[in-house]
Amino acid sequence: MAGAESSPLTTYVVNTSDGVPGAKIALSLHRLDTNLMIWTMIGVGTTNEDGCCPGLISQEAFIPGMYKLRFETGLYWERLGKTSFYPYVETVFTIQNPAQKFNLPLLMSPFSYSTHRGN
How large is the average pLDDT for residues 33-46? Predict the structure, then answer.
């Protein structure tokens, strides 16, 4: 993973059912290979105690294209002793201007989730 200072893409997770950060959630970043139409994993990470995973990709590796973040939410809820409807959450998004900064938060409970582009 890239250093937090140089990463143009960040994320954080909030456990909205308990009102706490989503700590220790494994996640992976993928980019779509438009020639083969397959996803290529380009990085992995884990949210910290604050629910953040800041160093997802370096500025140099961040190029225009379609990306997805996959959050391993089922394992998180299982660790908390809760049942979850979603074994994982994938957020797919398109980057047209990689010079911009992007923050993609995930707000989740065992039976729902939402995301948006933050800044």
Answer: 95
Residue 116 falls within a domain, yes or no? no
Return the pLDDT at 1.
Answer: 52
Average model confidence (pLDDT) for the chain?
Answer: 94
Length of the chain: 119
CATH of the domain at 55: 2.60.40.180
Specify the pLDDT at position 21: 98
Quote the domain boundaries for residue 17: 12-97
State the chain's maximal CA–CA distance in angstroms: 43
Could you tell me which residues are beta bridge partners of residue 91? Answer: 69
When divided into structural domains, the chain yields a total of 1
Q: In this structure, what DSSP letter does residue 75 have?
A: H
Please give the model's pTM, rounded to 2 decimal places: 0.92
**What distance lies between CA 82 and its chain's CA centroid?**
21
pLDDT (mean) for 57-72: 96
Contact 42, 76 (CB under 8 A): no
- Contact between 57 and 9 (Cβ < 8 Å): yes
Pairing label, strands 9-15, 106-109: parallel
